[in-house]
Amino acid sequence: MYDVIRIVHLHPRARSDGTAAEEFRRAAADSGAETHVVGAPLAGSIAAGDLIVRLRYTDRAAWAAGRGAIDTALAGPGVDRCHGAEFGAGTSGSLTGTADATCYRTLLLRVDPGTSATDTARFEHDLLAMPRHMPSIRAWNLSRVDSACGTTPWTHVWEQTFASPADVTGQYLDHPVHWAVVDRWFDPECPESIIRDRVCHAFCATGQDVPDRR
């Protein structure tokens, strides 16, 4: 599988007329994406633009063959700018029975290029430990980025589906594992911090179980 995320910022008029999401859904279908999520970011998202566009293809060649439809939509008059990432297989998992997932969430981040391989691996291990403590995470995927677009050269994409949007702002962000274990990698006042740029934390309503690659 090969995955693509675009965080789309719209011009004010396109934001108000409500047609952009449907245009991107049509573009996703025309591009040959196996699955897609197109949704408006919910309250609490950070640097998430006006639309989250998440696409899955059978492989990188399928994305290359179909991306023209997406690129055309992104070049449309309603789009101001976008950023995002493209990435292959990462580390995925899911709980038994994920049909109740109603929320997709992604975190795009950049690990400082001077970070050692050991510290990067420790950081990735801490992220992947989170689902063991948070049953509201129905499926998850952590990937290193092959190609990024926009002003930030993203290095990682950390995705989950949740039982509900409230679980993102509730159990996930408020969980002791998040604050005591994971947050130290992000906090600029912590000596172990390796995330230097503002992250993109984006979540939207959806019924699709995107992160599960199995």
UniProtKB/TrEMBL annotation:
<dbReference type="Pfam" id="PF07876">
    <property type="entry name" value="Dabb"/>
</dbReference>
<dbReference type="InterPro" id="IPR011008">
    <property type="entry name" value="Dimeric_a/b-barrel"/>
</dbReference>
<dbReference type="InterPro" id="IPR013097">
    <property type="entry name" value="Dabb"/>
</dbReference>
<feature type="domain" description="Stress-response A/B barrel">
    <location>
        <begin position="103"/>
        <end position="198"/>
    </location>
</feature>
<protein>
    <submittedName>
        <fullName>Dabb family protein</fullName>
    </submittedName>
</protein>
